[in-house]
C-alpha cells in the first residue's frame, strides 16, 4: 500500500491526512473510494503518456516549450502537451482533443479523453510557473480557468490563486462610462460579486450553456465553458468531476451589467463534492442549484445552505421521470424562505427565454451592498484540510519573501529610481556618449587626433571610477545577493514575484498618467504626447532596470580592475553574475541586449554572459537571429510570444524599450536541416510614431537601433499596422537605410513584411493589386534612398536582400474579435502566425548553404564590430554633428 507513496510526496501527505480525516469520520467506504480514484487517475496518466511527469522532479516547465521542432503538431507527443502547445499559439480550438486519446496518431474515438480531464492532467504535471502561463493563456482565449483543482485521488482541492496572479484585465465601469476611462487590475485583486452554478443529481439543463450565454451578453457567442454540444464535451469525465471553473464578465461601459462579475461552475454532482459546495457557498453572492426534483435530498442539501449572506436559487427543470409532489414542494418552499427562491423552467419555455431570466436574477442581485470578494481573499476560506492554496509551498514562499523585501521599499517609482538606479542614470548616459565619440574620432585624421583619444579615455576612466565608487543602495545589494544565492529552482519564482510586484506598482502610476492625459486633449498634441511618453518611461520600473544596474556594476568593476588593478568589496560575487544571467537566459528569461534609455550596449556584460552561454551549451553552438522591428504598439511582442511561446512584456502604450533577446533551442530533428542549435529572438522597442519623429533626436535614436538590429539578424520581421500608412513609410525608410549600409558586408539577409490587423483581401485580384502597390512603393523608396546615399545601381528592394513579394509579405488579421474587454482571439490570427513561423524555419533551412550561422563567439565579435560601426556612422545621421542625439533624460 505504501508503495503508492513514491508517487509523490504531497500525495503521500494527503493520503495520511486522508486517513485521519475520513477513515475515522466517514468509515471505510470512503477509504475504498480513495483507492478507486487513485487507480483511475493513474490509468489516465498512463493513457495520456504523462505518468512520469507527475512526480515533483519531472514536471513540465516553461523551458520545455522553448524549442523549435519540425511539424510539431504531427509528431508523437502526449495529448496534454499538444493541448498546451496549441494554447500557447492562441489556438482557440485547442480544447478539441477528440481522437487523441492515446499517444498514437490514429483517430480512436473510444479512447478519447474529455478536454477537462486533459486540462487537469496538464496542470497536475506542470510546475507553478507553467501553471501560471497556462491559466493566463486560457484566460486570454476566453476559456474558463480552474479555481479549485481536485487532486488526482480526489482527497483535496487546490485553490489556484497563484496560477491566476498573472491575469490582468481592463474594463470600463459604469462610473467611467462618460469619461471613457478604463480600469486595469490584476483579476485576483478585483472585488466582485461571484455567482456559482452547481448541479444536484442529474439534469438535462446545461449549466455551462447558460453560463456561456450570460457571459456573452450582446457580444458574439463564445464558449467560455465546455458543454455537451462541443466536440469532446460528451465524453465521460474521469478526474475532472469536482473541478470548479471560473470565468468573468467585464463591462465595457455600455452594457446592462455595470461592474465586473465572476461566475463559477462546479463540474460533477454536488452531492459528491460537498467540500467544494461549502466553499462556493461561502464566497458567492448567489448560488444557483440545478435540479429536477424537490424532495428529501433537496431538503438535506438546503440544510447545508446556511450562509446567511448568500442567496440560493433552486433551478427546477421539468423531467418526465420525476414528478414533484405538491406537499414536498410547499414544505421545501417554506424551508427556503429567506434563504432564496425556486426558479421553475417551464416545459414550454425555450432556452433563450430561460437564460434571460437567469441574467435578470443576476442583475437584480448586484446591489450596492451585495457580497463582493477578491479571489486573493478567498484564501481565508481555506482553513479546512481539504483545501490548499497553490502558493503555500516552501520554495514559493522563500522567493516571495525575498522579493517582498525589495519591492516593499518602493513607494514612489521616480524617486526610487533616482535613489537606487544610480549607475545607469546620468553616468551611464555620459559614458555612452563618450564611447560614441571615441569611435567617431578613432578614424579621423584631424590635427588634434593624437591628443583626443587619450583625453576621452581619461574622461571615461573618471566616469567609470565614479560608478565604481558608488556605494550599492540596499535594493541593489539585496537583489545581487539574492540573485547569486537563491537556488536555481527558486530564481525563476523570485524574478516572477518581483516582476508582478513591480507591475502592480507601475500600473497605478501609468493608469493615473494616462487618465490625466486623456482628459485634456488640445491641439498641441505632439508635444504633450511626447511628454506623456517620457513620463510613462520615467515612471516605469521593471526587472530590466535591476539587471541593467547589475550590468553596470559589472562593467565598472571590470573596467577598473583592468585599468587600475583594484577590486571592489563585492568583487567575488560580481564575478559570478554573468554565469547566473546566462542560466536565466537559458531558462527562457528575456535579457536586455540594448539599453533603450542610453541607447547603448553594455558590451563587457553582454559579452561575458554570451560567453557563459557558450560554455554552458558545450561550446561551438551555432545560432540564427530573428528580429522584429516596427512602429510602436503594433503587436510586435505579442507576435513573438505567440510564435515562440516567449515572455516578452506586452502592454498598451510604449512598452518595450531597447532590445531584448531570448534563446530558443532547435529540436534534434531540425538541427541538421536548419544548420543551427539555437535561434536568438530579438524584440525591439517600437519605432516612434511620425508625429514624434522630429522631437529630441528620437528619429536618430530609432535609426540607430534599427540599423544595429537589422544588421545582426538573419531574418528581420518588419511589423506594420495597416491603419498607419505614414508610420509605415517612416519605418520602411529606416529599414532600407540600414540594409543599404549593410550591403557593404556580405551577410545575406532576409526580410519579412507583416501587415497586422488586415483581413485577407477578398479576391485574388485585390490581393495581387495590394501586393503590387506595396512592391512598387518599396522599390521606389529603395531607389530614392540609394540615390541620396550615393549608391546608384540599386533600384529594387530585392537588390538589397532576398525578397519575393509573394512569399515574404504577410497579412495578419486582427488578433481580437469583438471589442475589449470581452474580446476573444481570432483563429485566423493564430493560424497565420503559425504559417509565418513555418516559413521562417524554411528560410533558415534554405540559408544553411548560403552563409554559415554564427557561433556565439563570432556573434559577440560581430556585435562589437557593428556597434563600433554604428557609433562611428552616427554623426552622419545627426543633423547637428557636434551635439549628437539626446534621448530620454
Ligand atoms: N486589437 C488588437 N490588439 C492587438 C493585436 N496585437 C496586439 N494587440 C494588443 O496591442 C497592445 C500592444 O501589443 P504589444 O505586443 O505590446 O506591441 P508592441 O509592438 O510590442 O509595443 P511596443 O513594444 O511598445 O512598441 C497589447 O495590448 C496587445 O494585446 C491585434 O492584432 N489586434
Ligand atoms: C515527462 O517526463 C519524462 C521523464 O522524466 C521526460 O523525459 C519527458 O520529457 C517529460 N515529458 C514532457 C512532455 O516534457
Ligand atoms: C468503439 O466502441 C464501439 C462500441 O463500444 C465499437 O463498436 C467500435 O468498434 C469501437 N471502435 C474502435 C476504434 O475501437
Ligand atoms: C458566511 O460566509 C462568510 C464569509 O463570506 C463567513 O464569514 C460566515 O461565517 C458565513 N456564515 C455562516 C453562517 O456560515
Ligand atoms: C423563444 O420563445 C420566444 C417566445 O416565447 C420567441 O420570441 C423566441 O424567438 C424563441 N427563441 C428561440 C431561440 O426559439
Ligand atoms: C578606419 O577606416 C578604415 C577604412 O576607412 C577601416 O578599414 C579601419 O578598420 C578603420 N579603423 C578603425 C580603427 O575602425
Ligand atoms: C489591489 O487593489 C487596490 C484597490 O482596490 C489597490 O490599492 C492595490 O494597489 C491593488 N494591489 C495590487 C497588488 O494590485
Ligand atoms: C488548432 O487546433 C486544431 C484542432 O485542435 C488543429 O486542427 C489546427 O491545426 C490548429 N491550428 C494551429 C495553427 O495550430
Ligand atoms: Mg513590445
TrEMBL record:
Alphabetical list of Pfam families matching this protein: URGCP, URGCP_GTPase
Gene3D superfamilies, alphabetized: P-loop containing nucleotide triphosphate hydrolases (3.40.50.300)
Keyword Transmembrane helix: yes
GO MF term (any one): GTP binding
InterPro entries: G_VLIG_dom (IPR030383), P-loop_NTPase (IPR027417), URGCP (IPR057365), VLIG_GTPase (IPR052986)
Domain of life: Eukaryota
TM region positions: 15-36
Region (Disordered): 513-533
Keyword Transmembrane helix included in the entry's annotation: yes
Record key words, sorted: Membrane, Transmembrane, Transmembrane helix
Domain spans labelled VLIG-type G: 620-864
PANTHER family registered for this protein in UniProt: GTP-BINDING, UP-REGULATOR OF CELL PROLIFERATION-LIKE
Family: Belongs to the TRAFAC class dynamin-like GTPase superfamily. Very large inducible GTPase (VLIG) family.
Protein name, entry field: VLIG-type G domain-containing protein
Lineage, uppermost ranks: Eukaryota, Metazoa, Chordata, Craniata, Vertebrata
